[in-house]
Design a protein that fits this description.
Elements: H1 3-6, H2 9-13, E1 19-24, E2 29-37, E3 44-49, E4 55-60, E5 65-72, H3 76-85, H4 96-112, E6 117-120, E7 126-129, E8 133-135, E9 144-145, H5 149-164
Length: about 160
């Protein structure tokens, strides 16, 4: 049993939200931000933020861990970004930049599919489709409203397919 596996959950908790370099069996090295450590298996869940806005999640098996080296203490922003990754969709609080990006991505996707869309409201936060349907932040299918049930269900289906695209 390695020293890592002998640590207590309170000791592992000290590594959460911090950037580490993990040396595992066969001298494999993994770098990333620690999201959590499984208290039963000592598995480490690491996240790396990629340049294109996506994330990479790696799980290092606890029994294989030889050494864990602290690289960066992190800050409040990193802690929020890590927490946000695994938060249920309905309880997320979006940053202004994220909402703007979601709105612009959805608007351009609708325009590419020849669906007339405009921005409306004081802050231009609401998307309006063909003057009969509105989409409010955070711009998901459940954020659509229209008195026309047929258009509502079709646009919601389109938005759902855009999100899975």
């Amino acid at each position: 049993m390695t020293d890592w596996c002998k640590k207590t959950p309170l000791e592992w908790k000290d590594y959460t939200n911090k950037e580490v370099k993990v040396t595992a069996d066969e001298k494999n090295e993994y770098r990333g931000w620690v999201v959590t450590v499984d208290p039963v298996t000592a598995n480490i869940v690491l996240v790396n933020f990629l340049e294109d806005g996506k994330v990479s999640v790696t799980v290092v098996m606890g029994h294989a861990v030889q050494k864990v080296e602290l690289l960066d203490e992190g800050n409040e922003e990193v802690k929020e970004r890590l927490a946000y990754l695994f938060m249920p969709e309905e309880s997320r609080i979006y940053r202004k930049e994220d909402l703007e990006k979601r709105k612009n991505n959805l608007k351009s996707w609708l325009e590419q599919n020849h669906i007339p869309v405009t921005e409306q409201g004081d802050a231009q936060r609401t998307l309006c489709v063909a003057d009969v349907l509105t989409i409010d932040p955070p711009y998901g299918p459940e954020n659509c409203s229209s008195s026309n049930e047929i258009i509502l269900s079709r646009v919601q289906a389109l938005i759902q397919s855009a999100l899975t695209y």
